[in-house]
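Handout, section 4.2: multi-component inputs.
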Amino acid sequence: MKLHEYQSKQIFARYGIPIPKGKVATTAEDARNIATELGGRVVIKSQVLVGGRGKAGGIRVAKDPRDAEDIATQILAMEIKGLPVRKVLVDEAASISKEIYLGITNDRAARKPVMMASSAGGVEIEEVARTSPEKIIKEHIDPLLGFKDYQSRDIAIAIDLPKQHWKLFNQIATGLWHAYQDSDATLAEINPLVITEDNRLIALDGKMLLDDNALFRHSDLSELRDLDIEAPSEIEARKYGLSFIKLDGNIGCMVNGAGLAMTTMDIIKLFGGEPANFLDIGGGAGSDKVAAAMRIILTDPNVKTVLLNIFGGITRCDEVARGILFALEEVKPKVPMVVRLVGTNADEGRKLLSDANMITADTLANAAQKAVDAVNSVKAGR
Amino acid sequence: MSILINKNTRLIVHGITGNEGLFHTTQMVLYGTNVVAGMTPGKGGEWVIDGKIPVFDSVKVAVDATGANTSCIFVPARFAADSIYEAADAGISLIVCITEGIPVQDMMRVRNYLDQKRVRLVGPNCPGLLTPGEAKVGIIPGNIAIPGNVGVVSRSGTLTYEVLYALMILDRGVSTCVGIGGDPINGTNFIDTLAMFEDDPQTEKVVMIGEIGGTDEEKAAEYISSQMTKPVVSFIAGQTAPPGKRMGHAGAIVEGGSGLAVDKIKALKNAGVKVATHPEEIPSLLF
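Output:
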């Protein structure tokens, strides 16, 4: 789950990380009032969960409250990469003398969190990593011990941070570690962390990604979810505990198991088709879950054929078949359906579906071929 | 011979009185696995499966009473890390964690702790282990594999069943099937398992089923080309997965241009591994 800049910075502030004075506005009038309150120049920053806000014109400096109102009007009317701007953050403008990158993420290969820092802050860190990886300092953190003071000194030295800032930098780095750990984040990033012309350290921008699996112990954070970045069908699927991702093709897929669901997409493509979605109904899915999955697939108008691929293990094929029949009655789909049932209670499942006018297949390859054929015959108007 | 589990496995099931735990324990017992104990806090003193298996409140007490040497964990995600620590501290040497959805920071702490204790974890978020004809620990259906000389290792669940089934239809058997799980941080990786198969006299060929996300397949490719004498056939799921989207498994995600199927396939092919275009093609590449 992604947090907005203002949400991330509010969390950072609770951990002793200095952030600019500022507030969130949903109207241009609010933006003007906040600018008046702050006095002087302000930065109006669109709050949308995509990268490249600045390049898209979603971050601009305003010289006075009236200017702030004008700019906020324009930014609040924008769409950035398809997402509507619903909020802007109005921050006091800082005079920057140096930009630093500081972030913590999970290093999957090392099985440890890693703190990364670079004196080349302010730009996309992925870009720095690609062009000049030597400019990124990496310090692994023992997950059982936590972040140690000497590590922040080592980082400060490695990025040539002047000595006068070491103490505050230690407070910021340690704060970032605790924010990351306490929120079960998978990324906590300050980019840029700036040294101002009057020699202060401030986190000018903030970004946090949270572990969806850990939200059960963070009810306060899970309320911060922004649904704008998810397709309505994906939100609906989550309600039923289904793992669903919408794609651009025309063959709807319903599969049990994530690996098999990916493989089903791959094999459709291999046989010349295009999958309309990834959908894993999970292990042991009952008929109500199957019916919900079918409804979600069929709400996509692009879907011209549905391929059901079920390998019964914990999931019983007869139970899935009952869910399919239940869903067929409710949604009355007009598109052809290809079904493949293998494993636990497959014979009973097939028997249940024998009157349902579905195309059956024995092997995965056979199922994919039949689904692609079905789409082609729908296209040909047969 | 086989790897990790066999007739001498003495299993304790954590969460044995839950729905999943009880159902799969029954399946494991029917398969012939020696399930010696169950563990559910608060249910100590009860007996399950027709009064054959004693339930304990504590793994330590269960180990002392029954000589259990292997744990299978079915407890909910929020309690799973604690359950793994408990097994490790009670002297269990092999822990198989089926539970899906454990927070990744929990797993980082678990993995670093287990490395210090030198305890082997398989999973989490995995289907477990099957040594056909001897024992199964976890949820892999017993009736889709026969004993033989093919070692199978996989990050997936049902996709693994497809492969076992495709082999069985052609009368090809399996030494041990290892589901290492779909999480970004797990206990046992491809290289650990490939090394065990390389040392196992029963295993003559290996099937390795990977998927998008991380770089474990690339590292395995390096290991195969430098250390393995036995032939390996592979399949990588997620060739059509869009970047930035988590494909069900927490670990199956293409991030910042790494974890792509195409890179994994290339690395494996360079290591002399035959890579199948779809899972049903695997048997023909093996024999």
